[in-house]
Amino acid sequence: MNRLLGIDLGTTSIKVSLFSEDSNLLGSRSSGYPIDVPHPGYAEQNPLDWWNGFLQATQALHEAFPEDFPHIAAIGICGQMHTQVYLDGQDNILRPAITWMDQRSAEIVARLHQDAEACALLAAETSNDVSTTYSAPQIKWVQENQPEVWSRVEHILVAKDYLKYRITGQRATDYAEASGTLLFNVAKQQWSQPAFDLFGIPRRMLPDVQPCDTIIGHVLPEVSQLTGIPAGTPMVNGSSDNTASALGAGMVQPGQVTLIIGTAGVISVCAGRPLADERRLTLCWNYALRDHWAILGIMQTAGASLEWFKNAFDPQSGSGSGDVFDQYNAAAQAVPEGSGGLVFLPYLNGERTPYWDSDARGVFFGVNLKTEKAHFIRAVMEGVSFGLRNNIETVESLGVKINEVRAVGGGLKSPVWLEILAKILRRPVFTVTTPDTGNLGNILMAGKAIGLYADYAEAVQRMVAVDQVISYPDGSPVYEKQYRTFLDLYQHLKPVYRQAAEGS
Hints:
Number of strands: 24
CATH class of the domain at 251-504: Alpha Beta
Number of helices: 17
Strand content: 15-25%
Distance between the termini: 60 Å
CATH topology of the domain at 251-504: Nucleotidyltransferase, domain 5
Radius of gyration: 22 Å
């Protein structure tokens, strides 16, 4: 039986997974890497850390499954969006990659927001509003602030496309990733020359755009020697991590919804047509399925909020320690709903939808003499869940009805967090049997590319199964009250955030 390899290049780690063609997960290996913060609001990574992480994870997987690797028929890949790698003509990395979390382009974004004509052009051309998350403002920052770097730039690749280039020698990107640059006409599914002209970015610097399930190259012999993957193995174009996760969760029909709690928090709704938000509160990107779109609400820090808490207060536990998160789950379970009146605003590095506020910061409100560590832990889970509800309601305000939510991501391995989420959302929360939905989405794209699956609907029906349904249709009176407090807190703090940013 054929084997399929999935590569998920996340924000804090890379995971490489080996599947059978009928979606049976044989094994996974991962490797972590840091996020560098040289200045407040900055968030950078070394692309070589991704490459070395890929080699380490793949080599370990090969050692565990040496008899399966010769049968790898195709490779699928997804990755963190927006993050840019700057290369010169000899493919040398010119500076650290600027990640999607980075807020350094806030001044450029503010400048553009003062230009009504520019905003109208971007809305018409890209179906989206300008923010610090998108690649184009960050590229503009390099252009304006690092001319010595900019003068040498020949190629700009997003994270997973850089890794793909290292594996195959081919440069390409996909519709979903291109949607995240603010340089792509989402409706026409092609690069927008007016957007390139607005930012002063040469079109030649970015690669051609192809569907996610297009074979764009084959594993190079030198990569085969390092990893054990057969030379010549086809590699598909791939897509963004949230797109792959949504596909792996079974989102193939318009109106279906996926909620992802990874580093960020993502609400993704499948649509059969582009649906631009005139208020510019949500996002409209291309989806993995051809001629389908995703309407999104995205939080800047979701699972990252609990990871931050662990790193700040339990640094001795080590990165990704399962033990400490088990302890957190037990602690949160022991605390009543509402965390003793403690409310958390999860804006640790600004916020994307629906506020687009790079100045926003995290807040614990309601601390008193009885507040203990467990209250903070549960409040983080509740605050992220409030933020996700805010995004769901914002997407629904466009006329999209959301009746059920398919929830995936590392944060939802916690049963107490799932219960909190279901009570706050007041909608059934479905989980799926395969926890690695990102790489499951990757192998669905890879399998379709080489003809193993006729279409995604058929593949999903065969391979994606619901694990459990958590439902609290009446919600919780405590959470309903706290949700209003959560919303009010941001509105009252918004001018304070701005004043603090201006004074820094």
